[in-house]
Fold these 2 entries.
Entry 1:
Amino acid sequence: MQAAGGPRVSMVSEVSVAQIAPLIGRLRRSDDITEEEAQALAAAAEEQRTHAPRTRIARSHVPLRNSQLLIDGFVSREAELPDGRRRILAIHVPGDFVDLHGFVLRSLDHEVVALTTATMVLFPYERMLSVISDHRHLSRVLWFATTVDAAIHREWIASYGRSAVARLAHLFCELRARLEAVGLADTSGYALPLTQIDLADATALTPVHVNRTLRQLREAGLVDFRSGRVEIGDLAGLERVAGFDARYLYLNKVDR
Amino acid sequence: MQAAGGPRVSMVSEVSVAQIAPLIGRLRRSDDITEEEAQALAAAAEEQRTHAPRTRIARSHVPLRNSQLLIDGFVSREAELPDGRRRILAIHVPGDFVDLHGFVLRSLDHEVVALTTATMVLFPYERMLSVISDHRHLSRVLWFATTVDAAIHREWIASYGRSAVARLAHLFCELRARLEAVGLADTSGYALPLTQIDLADATALTPVHVNRTLRQLREAGLVDFRSGRVEIGDLAGLERVAGFDARYLYLNKVDR
DNA sequence: CGTGCTATTGAGGAGTATCAATGCGTGTGG
DNA sequence: CCACACGCATTGATACTCCTCAATAGCACG
């Protein structure tokens, strides 16, 4: 469960409502959420946990008791294929409710794993239920968040019709747009402390081919993925190669 | 908008609450839904429309006013890649709320297309809102349905790590399980009036390769896809080849 | 009885995988 | 403080899956 060398026990600490509320507020630029609602939801947080890189945060097919908001680091949802290969189904960035669907499904169909050191805030289901019954609009906001996850899934499905170059380019575009929404990226790039193996498992390519494809993207002057950072050389060109259209992220009300 | 040869106007008719309510009731074996709730939801239906094969049912990126329940036929969600190729993102079977996520998102990121003659029942958003406010548990039921869609998306993502044979096998297994849940399949097979081109667009393979892969599956005695029907020769073997584990469909409460 | 779409089969090619080796950086223990 | 181990990145050579192009046949429909 824990990677060799990682801490045996995750760090647990108290949650500061004042600290999470603004994060919640800016989570979804696409939906109206009042200050009061953000406060109420933040108050439902129970505790905060920090996980070491490569450690599992939630298991599949076991009953859950809380949903988790990622506030720092990168987290993935992963499945293991029958032959043992790892497949990354989704990558989460700070501000994402990572297993909100578990609130409805009561168990997950995949693992949740920390790709980097990751800090999560836990929301027990009972508290979420009572917050929702007091603030009924929040129910729609949370539902909305899970449907955006599904839209991202669909874009990944469509991505398998793309070439290796376009697929990687698309992943970089998507993460840039999502990170920018929470102030963690701009047009020049962003921190992405993943390995090429992670990118391979997320794009259904081999690490070797990811390496070669990254070189192509670098030599084309589009992106340079190096030492945990995505350095964007030509954003417009990258988005053109990727066939990227941000509307599926539902980041702006005008898209709807 | 309409395929050549299809009817110019879809057939519109009155909805029979008595007819849809049972369908709604058995939609989700995985969640409790009372008879009263099923009736209330069915009463929110406005009208029923029948679409010709290959015609578009809903467009992407335009504001929506209702969600649609598929009660007969097969429907797909489709995206078009920049180079014009079609990608099928999801296949819906009778009993599926095809664009329920539009209720929350207010517009779709993809097209909805009738693969066969398809009959849909329309639920205007205003009516859904009032039903939900009267029967608050239904909100959870509908949310649940969209999260199961997302789980299916994830399984398709994982599927791209599978070989062509396993990917097609997995699709046949999934559709069988979902159709069985609404009484349209058994262990021996089911009607699936799609073309090999449809299967190709759904699996990100070429039609030629689908054809050859289908032959392999047939010669292995696993499945025979022919003239609009999936004839299963060896279900256990098929599921083994596919690496199929039905839990992600959340068809049974025990899975949760 | 064409017209068009789908299914099937063949031949050859492209893209990506596999196998293998080396280098590189970091952390660790002697 | 150095030697080593280990995981990751990089590159080369080769293999294989799946794609592309092409042609034909079958079938439904007007």
Entry 2:
Amino acid sequence: MSLQFHNQLTKKVDPFTPQVAGKVSLYTCGPTVYNYPHVGNWSGYVYWDTLVRILQANNLEVTRVMNITDVGHLTGENEGDADQGEDKLQKGARREGKTAWEVAAFYTDDFMKGIDRLNLIKPTHVTKATNYIEEQLQLIRTLKEKGFTYEIDDGIYFDTAKFPTYANFADLDLEAQRAGARVEYNPEKRNHSDFALWKFSPAGEARDMEWETPSDLIEAGEERLGFPGWHLECSAMAMTLLGETLDLHTGGIDHIPVHHTNEIAQSEAATGVIFANYWMHNNHLKVNGTKISKSLDNGYTLDDLEEKGYSPLDFRMFVLQSHYRSEGNFTFENLDGAKNRLRNWRNIAALRHQTHDRLRDDDEKSTDDESVSLYASSQALVEALSNDLDTPAAYAIIDDAFSRIESINIEDIHQHALTTLLETIDSVLGLQLLETTKDISDDVKRFIIERERARENKDWHAADHLRDQIEKSGITVRDTAHGSIWEYTA
RNA sequence: GGCGCGUUGGCGGAGCAGUUACGCAGCGGUCUGCAAAACCGCGUAGAUGGGUGCAACUCCCAUACGUGCCUCCA
């Protein structure tokens, strides 16, 4: 089996080869911690978690860094957006009557809880931008020494004209952009696409987060407080922890033209080597067919979903139903479909509890057709995901395997093959099929056996009474030609 | 205003130039103590108009609608 991924550098699906055999360095752009993440934010993290899982399933040791943007960045100086001209964290702090530090700490904590709720594997390093200010300043220093920077009134900027391949990553038409721009840009900037590496604190504005600008970075005689530009932190933290060249860098599709383009420019200008060999981007999730935006109030959070009766795993099931590069659409009707599909999968997973004395565990039977095909499904699942994270194909493989299990006699299911398949699904898709399908209590099992006995005696009254008892435990029994099977009641 | 992208059955969602994707929901039948499940079957999918091809949902062009970026954004 071989891994291949769509790479923004080449704009096509390429075979994936890490720099060092058996190891992968991975950087994922993390959240700005000024608010609760919404379903669109989380969908990206679900995809990248699945990426980590499939890398690991291919026996690769993954070292992953995810940043926490816990420092405010001034957004553009222009009109058109209510958030314009104000630092999100400072704004959040004012809204909540706290300091920016407290706001960042609160939402960082919430984000980390969300990672657990969605069963996302914790990155090797979760790094806060404010813990890497020195590294960011050092990167500016390197860029200044190499002549890529200039200072204007409000900050230190990167001169994109000095990085000739700037437009390549996103296929930018810089001339057209400038000509078609609807908003004015800072006229002091040398080029429209130049971006701030370091911003000076505006005079008279009280900020919770600011640092002294080292004197060697600014013109002689100045003394200015400032804070890092947004793009800088990712480059500084990625290279500090993973080295100058990463294997893989992931993020949202919106990052291609600005954030990632700028990361590449500043990193490669500083080091002279390629910053990341593969770049993967998740498409955005819409809600009810439109963009998620504050004004529409459609950015549902995990709490919103739980209040409506959907678990984070229902949502995870929903996300992976569509390919990471296609645009998803979130509606509660769609979430219902995913929830039902997951419920059905769990009922298959529960079969392993009710078959152990009847299952074909003996070696001589482990090579029969059904068990072999289940082992093949485990293999096919990993191969589908290795092919550019093809989660829809993976789901189809699982459905196919499960419908075969449903259609054969329970005695003919090979327990080890089924358990192996479930373990594989859990390890690569993180759906916790095993964990969420615990065995039932001995009491309920006894009721089921008594009920089977009553049925043999055609004592339908007793049988129906026992079924009521069983249903009180959230279990439904159904009778097949080969005995009773229990399921979790929907 | 400039530059992109998308449009598949009730709802999601894939692949593919010619044989069932898959799921959720629905309908009919078989089976069955009841119930449920399972199994079998059903519903004239491919925005619209052209073009290329022996053949197009699949390639090309146009139109409509939707949507995104150009400003912070997963």
